[in-house]
Write a structure and sequence with these properties.
This protein has 187 residues and is mostly beta strands. 9% of the residues lie in helices and 59% in strands. Strands 1, 2, 3, 4, 5, 6, 7, 8 and 9 form a nine-stranded antiparallel sheet that branches. A hairpin with a 4-residue loop joins β7 and β8. The radius of gyration is 18 Å and the shape is elongated.
């Protein structure tokens, strides 16, 4: 948990000291349910939920992106806490709403994650063992993609299907993770 806080503070310092970038103008005539076109390339920020940590996004084209994160997940499955690393490929098929200040694209994706966690912990932090999970993620969300400032805010739900190793033979598990986050765009 101390590592997550240190990483989060480092990200905040980097964002605060980075020069502001102007968002490129979007094509004229965008309407609700039109195709989304990114006006930014690389963003980095903070994510809260499952997991808490840092999040980044890199647009490979005008509507497809890689989303990645490193954080700490709390009390999932059998009361396990631990480090989570993920990478997702996202599609932004259309815009739900458009305004002068922002666009609200819908996105869906597929990816994977690795999670190493402690479980069977008592209230004093003594844990019975640790577990590891590899899983498939399907993020579904929306992003408030601002036109005039280099920021976006996202909200997502992520169904996951996890396979455990070194976790006393638990069966694969279908779970639902959710998070909200903010990113600063560098270019």
């Amino acid at each position: 948990m101390k590592v997550t806080r240190l990483v989060a503070l480092s990200v905040l310092f980097a964002v605060a000291s980075a020069p502001a970038v102007d968002a490129r103008p979007r094509p004229a005539g965008h309407t609700n349910f039109s195709k989304f076109e990114a006006n930014k390339t690389f963003g980095l920020g903070l994510e809260l939920g499952s997991p808490d940590g840092i999040n980044g996004k890199y647009f490979l084209s005008s509507s497809n992106a890689l989303d990645f994160g490193l954080g700490y997940a709390y009390r999932n499955y059998y009361a396990g806490d631990g480090l989570n690393l993920y990478v997702d490929y996202l599609w932004h098929p259309f815009v739900l709403a458009t305004a002068d200040a922002f666009e609200l694209p819908f996105y869906i994706g597929v990816g994977g994650h690795f999670w190493r966690f402690d479980w069977g912990c008592d209230r004093f932090g003594n844990c019975a063992d640790y577990g590891e999970a590899f899983g498939v993620r399907v993020p579904i969300g929306i992003a408030f993609d601002f036109n005039e400032v280099p920021l976006d805010i996202f909200l997502q739900v992520v169904p996951t299907f996890d396979f455990f190793s070194h976790y006393n033979g638990h069966d694969p598990y279908l779970g639902f993770w959710g998070s909200v986050g903010i990113r600063f765009w560098f270019n």
